[in-house]
Design brief:
Elements (H helix, E strand, L loop, with lengths): L2 H5 L10 E4 L4 E5 L3 H14 L4 E6 L3 E6 L6 H13 L12 E6 L6 H8 L3 H10 L2 E6 L6 E5 L16 E4 L3 E5 L2 E4 L4 E3 L2 E5 L20 E6 L24 E7 L2 E5 L19 H10 L8 E5 L3 E5 L4 E8 L2 E3 L2 E2 L6 E2 L5 E5 L4 E9 L30 E3 L24 E7 L8 H9 L2 E3 L7 E5 L17 E2 L4 E4 L5 E4 L6 E2 L3 E5 L4 H5 L6 E6 L5
Parallel strand pairs: 5-13, 25-33
Antiparallel strand pairs: 1-2, 2-4, 3-4, 6-7, 6-13, 8-11, 9-10, 9-12, 14-17, 14-24, 15-16, 16-23, 17-22, 18-21, 18-23, 19-20, 19-22, 25-32, 26-27, 26-33, 27-30, 28-31, 29-30, 29-32
């Protein structure tokens, strides 16, 4: 990383920016304000070289996600600097259509917002509806718009986030944080201040475009006394009825949680959609290879085990990842080897996992589940993708065959280790927000995996990571997030973001685990020790 990227002296021409480290597969471009951030995003999008996977615009930043096999960090940084040095700093988003949203102003935080604005709760509604808003970007969740006043001169005072996030904000909630207004498309955790609710459907994957409010759109909030009964802000995709009797798999017992996953849907962060996909990508690819599938074919991700499937005659299956007893019609199957169902209705049982947390079950041909936005992956945060399996679910087998089932009698891989798990990390973009002792604790502590961990994030239990005096009490404008980012909440607790994490977030990232460490993280069991070690050498 060059000196001016680190010390903040920035670029002298074009768009002034800092380029910050972001692990081994991304860079974060930091701008002075929202408008130059949007101009930078437009300039970078117009000239992105091969190997740039995604550009994630946010309040003051653009996250640049890279395929390290096609473009290195140094090459990417040169491209960023050259592009921004000649970019048009006055470029703006094209003006989009006007969207009108009916709102009942009865939010739980009206009084708190009124105190910040120095007015009554009724006047909050009046001032909010008097403004025309513009969608600067979409983030956090699919279809969640970050709205700013179309005329910055009329902007009301910024509103701080709540000190404690709500575990579930209802769908349709209209909320404020910093200088933004947002609308929650579906129920999700959130720390914004709630001022009202709408019945508008902010996100529908069957709609084109799926986001009701896209970047550049203008928004007017219309005050109403109440909303019609029976309305909903979320719609489910239609059931997929394409199941032939000779290619059907029946779910007898789904276990604790079994999800359909492929390798995800990258490239849609501008809609607020994360990539999702298999948590243990190596296990997913291996399971597919063992049955002769394309490695991107949809398979099952089984949490803790307990899954029982009835297979059609002749179906080939393979189980990888976490290990435990696996049987086919009562006969024990060796780990990581393909097996064939000898009769219609043959029972495959994945017992409780003894090592690791997640097993992958692949069937030759892959699973022909209904795709949303180009992927069959379930995103547990956004609700996109096939629903979790339930007893009686019927799965159809697809045609994602890439070759014959390989002849193999041994895959020389060890089961996941239940001992201390070492994960390599590299500096995150906000490492300078934390004290020297916080960095020492990060790398010297035997962290414990919290039982509250899931595909959104793996929470670590241990000492709090203190911020510097300058960063204490400071709010971070929302910025792009990367799976593997170690995000630190205001109480100092670190969480390693998983594949279903939001595409943007407002907690500072002290470090990011390497791409190679993500698959190991997928197998970390509650209570297991995690040790973070600084990666050596250039990424």
């Amino acid at each position: 990383m060059s000196d001016d990227g680190e010390n903040g002296s920035g670029l002298t021409d074009g768009i002034t920016a800092r380029i910050l480290p972001c692990g081994d597969r991304a860079l974060l471009v930091e701008l002075e304000a929202l408008e130059p951030a949007l101009a930078a995003h437009a300039a970078l999008a117009a000239s992105a070289p091969d190997g740039v996977l995604e550009l994630v615009p946010a309040a003051r930043t653009v996250l640049v996600r890279l395929d390290a096999r096609r473009i290195g960090l140094a090459h990417a940084e040169h491209w960023l600097r050259d592009t921004l040095a000649t970019a048009d700093a006055s470029a703006r988003l094209p003006e989009g259509p006007l969207v009108e949203l009916p709102v009942v102003y009865d939010g739980d935080d009206l009084a708190a917002v009124a105190a910040v604005w120095g007015c009554s709760p009724a006047e909050v509604a009046e001032r909010h509806t008097a403004l025309e808003w513009r969608c600067a970007f979409v983030g956090f969740a699919p279809g969640f718009p970050y709205l700013v006043p179309a005329d910055p001169a009329l902007a009301p005072p910024p509103v701080p986030r709540r000190a404690t996030s709500r575990p579930a904000v209802p769908p349709g909630a209209v909320a404020l944080a910093a200088e933004y207004t947002g609308v929650y498309p579906r129920s999700s955790p959130g720390g914004w201040q709630l001022i009202g609710r709408t019945d508008a459907t902010l996100w529908d994957a069957r709609r084109d475009p799926p986001a009701l409010v896209a970047p550049g759109a203008r928004v007017r909030f219309l005050p109403v006394g109440d909303l019609p009964a029976g309305t909903t802000t979320a719609t489910a995709p239609p059931a997929d009825a394409r199941v032939a009797a000779d290619t059907a798999i029946e779910v007898i017992d789904p276990g604790a949680l079994t999800l359909v996953q492929d390798l995800g849907r990258p490239g849609r962060a501008t809609l607020g959609v994360g990539a999702a996909g298999a948590f243990d990508r190596a296990a997913h690819r291996l399971a597919n290879r063992l049955v002769g599938n394309d490695e991107t074919a949809a398979a099952l991700e089984v949490l803790l085990g307990g899954l029982t499937l009835a297979l059609p005659e002749g179906a080939w299956v393979a189980v990888t990842g976490g290990t435990g007893p696996v049987t086919l019609d009562g006969a024990s199957l060796p780990p990581r080897l393909p097996a064939r169902a000898g009769r219609d209705g043959a029972l495959l049982h994945v017992g409780r996992l003894e090592h690791g947390l997640r097993a992958t079950v692949a069937v030759r041909g892959g699973l022909d589940a209904l795709a949303e936005l180009g992927s069959r992956s379930r995103d547990t945060l956004s609700g996109i993708g096939p629903e979790p399996l339930t007893a009686g679910s019927i799965l159809s087998i697809g045609d994602a065959v890439a070759g014959p089932v390989p002849t193999i009698d041994l895959v020389p891989l060890d089961a996941p280790d239940d001992g201390p798990l070492e994960l390599a990390v590299r500096p995150g973009p906000r490492h300078d927000w934390f004290t020297e002792s916080a960095h020492e604790n990060l790398l010297s502590t035997d962290w414990r995996v919290s039982p509250r961990s899931d595909r959104t994030g793996v929470r670590l239990e241990g000492p709090g990571l203190d911020r510097t005096a300058e960063a204490t009490g400071r709010e971070l404008p929302s910025e792009g997030m990367l799976p593997g980012s170690i995000q630190v909440s205001p109480d100092g607790a670190p969480t390693i973001l998983g594949p279903d994490a939001p595409v943007t977030g407002g907690y500072p990232v002290i470090a990011i685990i390497t791409d190679a460490a993500l698959d190991s993280l997928a197998q970390a069991r509650p209570g297991q020790t995690v040790r973070l070690r600084l990666a050596t050498g250039r990424p």
